[in-house]
Design a protein that fits this description.
Blueprint lengths: L12 H16 L6 E2 L8 E2 L1 H4 L6 E9 L3 H8 L5 H14 L4 E11 L4 H17 L3 E9 L9 E12 L14 E6 L8 H11 L7 E2 L4 E2 H5 L7 H9 L6 E4 L4 H5 L8 E6 L7 H10 L3 H7 L4 E7 L4 H8 L7 E9 L4 E4 L3
Parallel strand pairs: 4-5, 11-14
Antiparallel strand pairs: 1-2, 3-6, 4-6, 7-12, 7-13, 8-9, 10-12, 11-13
Length: 350
């Protein structure tokens, strides 16, 4: 009987080594001076004393998230280049809600058969996003697990660690009636609602992944793979300018109806004014394909708003003045805070 190797069981160690060789320089390019060591160790080290010297009472904030079934669309389009930006944005935005700055990231990439070129494409995209947002990709894991994942499947997960001064934590507790609700535009689905979007586009609408759709002005792949926006730079510009942001929400799965209540005190409601921000053609198409109700659409999708901020009405002009320096992040007044019990309602468009 011939000797059986790990590769015979479906795990190619050399492919993993090749993937690491391909991404090593890109990963190193994200390192800040606070990173200690390099790739290949059993753990990542980061010099907290140096990184936190300007914080009076630093509080560590962490989050873990994934790209979800957007990976299926990427596989259909054979384009994994934007998933790294999606992963960083999904994680970093979650801790940005509290006012935290992301310092480090860890990534986990798993599939049935490890393809070094696919890993390289994904990680290089992730490294670009990390550099653009001053985040150090301090470590990661590639896992080849035949039979755990179906052929061609990918799983992408990220963990971020950030910091915020305790006195500057934003938790929504000061929100009161009369405050205004502002929203940053999204670029599309971001990383949420893809199970429904795939059913509508490919099963109901019978669209092909590379098909140009006149209503969208682009191909199906381009519309569905539009990268998740990272809102850290304009939000920190507002915070550094002293704009009094009382609460923020990352509009992920659950949409406006489920995510905004997460930061509301029990004594207030938010009224969202439909039609107060530009509609994205993708959401119009999806809703038409499924004859989706207004409430269901605003739970399944972000519907064109990826980030929400609540502030006093007196701060809105100053907020908009700061954001004039960030033209790629259009902001809209989408609602107001009223007395209530911690819920969100949708007001009909004018």
């Amino acid at each position: 009987m011939s000797q059986i190797t790990y590769a015979d069981a479906g795990v190619n160690i050399e492919a993993g080594n090749e993937a690491v060789r391909r991404i090593k320089d890109s990963v190193h390019s994200t390192f800040s001076p606070h990173v200690i060591g390099g790739l290949g160790g059993f753990g990542a080290m980061y010099d907290l004393k140096a990184a936190l010297k300007n914080y009076d009472h630093p509080v560590m904030v962490q989050s873990i998230d994934g790209v979800g079934t957007k990976t299926i669309v990427a596989r259909m389009a054979n384009n994994f280049s934007t998933l790294g930006q999606d992963l960083l944005s999904a994680c970093a935005n979650d801790i940005l809600v509290l006012g935290a700055k992301t310092l480090t990231m860890l990534d986990y990439v798993a599939n049935d058969i490890l393809d070094p070129q696919t890993i390289e494409t994904f990680v290089k995209g992730l490294c670009v996003a990390c550099r653009d947002n001053h985040v150090s990709l301090v470590g990661g894991e590639t896992a080849e697990m035949p039979d755990t994942y179906l052929p061609g499947e990918h799983d992408l997960v990220g963990v971020v660690t950030g910091v915020v001064d305790k006195a500057r934590i934003i938790d929504g507790s000061r929100i009161q009636p009369g405050d205004v609700v502002l929203g940053f535009a999204s670029s599309g689905l971001h990383t949420n609602g893809f199970s429904l979007a795939r059913k509508l586009m490919f099963d109901v609408g019978q669209y092909q992944i590379d098909q140009h759709v006149e209503a969208l002005g682009q191909t199906v792949a381009e519309a569905l793979l539009a990268p998740h926006i990272n809102y850290a730079n304009p939000v920190h510009a507002l915070l550094d300018a002293g704009v009094d942001i009382k609460g923020m929400a990352h509009i992920t799965g659950g949409g406006l109806l489920e995510n905004v209540p997460r930061v509301l005190p029990d004594h207030v409601d938010v009224e969202i004014q439909l039609g107060s921000w530009p509609a994205l053609p993708l959401f119009d198409l999806l809703c038409d394909l499924g004859t989706i109700s207004t409430d269901e659409a605003h739970r399944a999708f972000n519907m064109g708003i990826g980030w929400v901020m609540v502030m006093p009405a007196s701060e809105q002009a100053r907020c908009e003045a700061v954001l004039a320096e960030w033209p790629d992040f259009p902001v809209y007044q989408i609602g107001q805070v009223v007395s209530g019990s911690g819920s969100v309602s949708l007001l009909p468009a004018f």
